[in-house]
Structure formats: structure tokens, C-alpha cells
Amino acid sequence: MSIxxxxxxxxxAAAMFAGGAQAADVRIAMVVKAxxxxxxxxxxxxxxxxxxxxxxxxxIYVGPTAxxxxxxxxxxxxxxxxxxxxxxxxxxDQDALVxxxxxxxxxxxxxxxxxxxxxxxxxxxxxxPSSDALIGQTIxxxxxxxxxxxxxxxxxxxxxxxTNQNSWIAEMNKVMxxxxxxxxxxxxxxxxxxxxxxxxxxxxxxxxxxxxxxxxPTSVGVVAAAQAVADAGKIGEINVTGLGLPxxxxxxxxxxxxxxxxxxxxxxxxxxxxxLVHELIEGAEAAPGAEIQMGRMGAITLDDxxxxxxxxxxxYDASNIDEFKSVF
Amino acid sequence: xxxxxxxxxxxxxxxxxxxxKSWESLLLLVAVAIFVLNSFAxxxxxxxxxxxxxxxxxxxxxxxxxxxxxxxxxxxxxxxxAAIIALASTAMGAAxxxxxxxxxxxxxxxxxxxxxGAFNGALVTGLGLPxxxxxxxxxxxxxxxxYIVLGDGAYGGYPAGFxxxxxxxxxxxxxxxxxxxxxxAVGFGVLLHKTNFxxxxxxxxxxxxxxxxxGIRVGRVKFILFLxxxxxSGVAAICLTSRLGSTRPxxxxxxxxxxxxxxxxxxxxxxxxxxxxxxxxIAAFVMGLVTFGLGLLNVPGIVMSILxxxxxxxxxxxxxxxxxxxx
Lengths: 328, 327
Known about the structure:
- The complex is a heterodimer.
- Chain A is α/β, with parallel strands linked by helices.
- Chain A folds into two domains: 20-129 and 266-310, 3-Layer(aba) Sandwich (Rossmann fold); 132-263, Rossmann fold (3-Layer(aba) Sandwich).
- Helices cover 42% and strands 20% of the residues of chain A.
- Chain A is built from eleven helices and 14 strands.
- Chain A has a six-stranded parallel sheet with strand order 2-1-3-4-5-13, with helices on both faces. In chain A, strands 7-6-8-9 form a four-stranded parallel sheet, sandwiched between helices. In chain A, strands 10-14 form a two-stranded antiparallel sheet.
- By secondary structure, chain B is an all-alpha fold.
- Chain B is 72% helix and 2% strand.
- In chain B, α4 packs parallel to α9 (176-194), α5 runs antiparallel to α6 (102-127) and α13 (255-265) crosses α14.
- Chain B is globular and about 80 Å long.
- Chains A and B meet through α1 and α3 of A and α2, α3, α12, α14 and α15 of B.
């Protein structure tokens, strides 16, 4: 019989090990794409921050070990069974999760998707980290902030057919009227390849010796451009900025090749999504045109698809890069 | 007669004793223990609908595990099953894009499964290659094709009637997948335990050379087992695709290891030659109950994998340690 006893003790220990969570008034689950991803760990921190601010909220942070839709469905089924009050989710598949999340909503659970959205039928609302317009406005502002007397800037994009980058650049061009002293001299394409982006950046420096800044709205391009500027010994003359990941850009910030760059802040995103789902649980209605509060991040107004953008991308510079470079 | 004073038993233990000490009863006890523990650990566990939802954790994997059990008993293995799901699902997705109905989609799913199984079987039995190497190769090959076709995209838009396999209920909380699971469990149980084919599978697993000299067509039996495993992967692909309503190349990623875990936990020797279908059925329930129970307690997936790994090693090692200690 000792076999059975040993095994039962093992299982009981496992159950006790797991039973730490206590019931709070409101239980909100954050379902992420996969565990062990710094971006989502940071979003989870944001959710905890929101919970601490709200007081009566318990956060349940879960995610599958592999980033699959079926893994997330298992989690959703278990959360439905536990009768949680709200689910905040970043989806591995925008369609596959719809049946499970629909069931959750039928049982009265409020569903907010963030980062990677769920199709309209499967959620109450979707919170995008930012919008094309906000990103376009941010990337030119990043360059202009360090050029008080104006100057020449060039854009190093991804592929010429990339929908994202093209719409960001188009939005940037719409607000160029606000920066009369700044001239965009060229737009080149590095195809999101490190070596091609590096060569294109070198080409820009040769063609425009008086270039003041390179804007690269792609995480590959911005790193390559910073490297090209450093290798050409033009640190201090040319400021590289755009959209990048703190972990990859930390070196460029340290060397001064980049004074600042932007990307969404996962902590703010997790915080805002949690605040939104809490508002819905408290009775706020998710409908087109509705304005919903999200604590320190202000408020959003939902569009016709019940979607909204959180804010302009968050700016990273020497003052905060050390805090975020280990996060994502 | 003086001879009758010495009784020579025709078996060493009574059938009841053998049965009670068998692997299956040990596993059944574990399953019951986990069920009871879960009921105490979470107030949400004992709910018919919740338990019904939880069966999706294991039904699809178990369908493949039945065929895999026969394959492992025969001394072979197929690690490409999850990749076959990906390829079959991709083929069904492509067919759904051109407007095919549920019946042709089902046939395509089964057909791709069979074809992949035949490919594995031909390489193993035709060329005499080791199955573990062949199926590690085809694992990359089949899923690679899905990645080439889909990239980072997805197929959706399956016809409404197709949803019945993975989302439909037969009656109350009984899903179609549970019905398939039961029918396949009985079918494979009969095939392994009550037919000549099943005896041949055991014989091959214990000693392929002796089996060949006894007139068993070893190659043909193994080829049929690969076909069956491919076919069951096709069935699982149909259920999973129907349940998700969408196909991505990452579908069922890593499922092959869970299937093998289920088979080994069910008491099938990884070296071949022994194991039963009832054991695999109980192992499916054990794994389903553990994952659902831990899920209700919000145990992170990583910890869950660790616990299942420990359960597997524990269940395999303890009887061996026990017999060593007694000896």
C-alpha cells in the first residue's frame, strides 16, 4: 500500500502548494500568450498595480507554456468554471478563442482583449496599445524634441509594402506642418533586415552629410541605424530614434547614438486593461462611443468596433532604460 | 490415488489477485484519489458542465494515444502525430477556403492523416529505418509544410456544420468528442485484446524475429499500425480544428509528448511488448483530472508540466523500487 500512500501524499502536496489564492471581492484573470515572456510579466505587474489601487481586486495571472490557442482555451474553461468576474486576454489566435470567450460572456464574465486582440464577437472591448495616428505623431516628435533649431531628418523604414510602417509614415507626414523647421529629406527601406538597414543608413549619411536625425519606425532598423551611426563616428551629430525594444536599444542609449526612442509600455497596458475590465464589472457599458475611465491613464472612447487605443507610445531614454531593458 | 495428493496449480495466482495487483487498478486508485482531492481543493470541481468542459483536455490526445499504444506495444513510436494534426488541419482549412462542406472536409482530414501515416510506415517498414528517427524527421516536414502554406496567417471560415465535432453536444453534457473517445476506446480495446492482429502486435513487440519465424508478417502489421496512428491523428485534427474554428501552423504544438506520456502512464512499456488499452483510458482520465484540477487552482502551466512529469516518473519508478525493496 505504500505506493498508493506516497502518491496520494504527492498529489495532496501539489494541491496544497497550489491553494495559496484567497477569494477577494472581485477576481480578474489575466490570460497571456505564454508564460516566461518579459513583456507579459510586465503587463502582469501593471495589473497588480491596478489591483492595489482598486483595493478589492485579486489578479489571477495565467498562461499556457506554449503559445497556442488550445492552451488558452483550457485556461478560459477553467476560469469560467471558477466564475471569475473578468478576463483580460492577449490572444494567440483572434478567431479560435471566440467560442470559449463567448461562453464566458454568456456566464456574465467581462472580457477585455489587449495587445493582440480577439475578434469582435469574443470580447466586450479591445484595447490597442496605440494607434497609427499616435505613433506617427510620436516618431516625428522624438526627432524634433532634440532639434530645437530645426534640421534635416531621414526615415529608415521596413519593407516598402509594410502596412504598419507606411500608415505610420503617412500619419507623420500629416503633422509635418507643426514642425516648419524640420525637413524630411529621404525615406529609405531596410526591409527589416539588419545588414540591409545598416547599409541604407550608411547611404543616408553619405548622401546627406548634414543629416541631423534618422527616424526608424522598426525595431530592426533602429538598432542597425544606431550601429551605423556609431561605426561612422557620428555620435552626437546624428540622433537615431524611432520604435525599438529597450533590451535591444540599451547599448545605443548608453553610447549616445540614440537620445530616445519609443514603444508601448507593457506595464501601462496591463494596468489600463485591468482598470477597463473593472469598470465593466462595476456596470460600465461597452458600446460604440462610450467613454470608459482607466485610472491614471485617463479615459478611452470606443470606436464602432468597440476598440480603442491606450496612448501614444512611451518614450525611453537614459533616465529609464535601465529599468526596462531587462523587461522586454 | 496417491498422485492427487499433490496439487499442481495451473496458475500461480488467482485471477482476482492478479487483477487487483495490476497496473490498471493502481492507476484507477490514483484517478479516484485525484478526483476526491480535487473535490475538496476547489468548490468549482463537482459541476457537470465544468467537468464536461474539462474532458476536452484529454479526449483528442487520447484518440491518438489508443493507436500510439498499439504502435509502442509493437516496439515502434510515432513522434510526428502533432505535426500530422497541423498538416491535416491546414489541408482542411485550404479546402474550407474554396467552399467545401463538412463531409468533404472530414474526408480530407482523414485522408491527409492516412497519407502521413503511410509515409511514416513506408519509411520504417520499407527501408527499415528506426521509427524514432523517421518520425522526428517527418515531425519537422509535416509542420514545415503548414508553416510554408500559412506563414503567420490563419485559415478560418469553416462551415457552420463542421463545428459539431468539437463543439456539439449529443445529449445534456455529453459531447460528440466523448462519444468518439468511448467508441474508439472500445474499438482499440477489442483490436488489441480480442483479435489475432492484437496477439501479433504483442508478439512483435516481445520478439520481432520470433514473430517473423512464427509466420507473422511483421512489416505489414507495423505498416497498418502507422496507418492507424496517422488516421487517428486525422480524427484528432478534425475534432481540434472544429473546436477552434481556425487553423494556425502552431496548432497542437507539443502534443506528441503529451500523447506518449499518456501511453506510458497507462502502463505500456516504452520498450514494447506489454500494455493495455484500459490502462491508457484510465491514464487519459488521470491526466485530464490533474490538469483540470490544477487549472482550477490557477497553478501556472510550467508548474503543471513539472507535476505531470513527476507523476509520470513516480508512477513508473515506484513499482520498480517497491519490487527491489521487497527482494
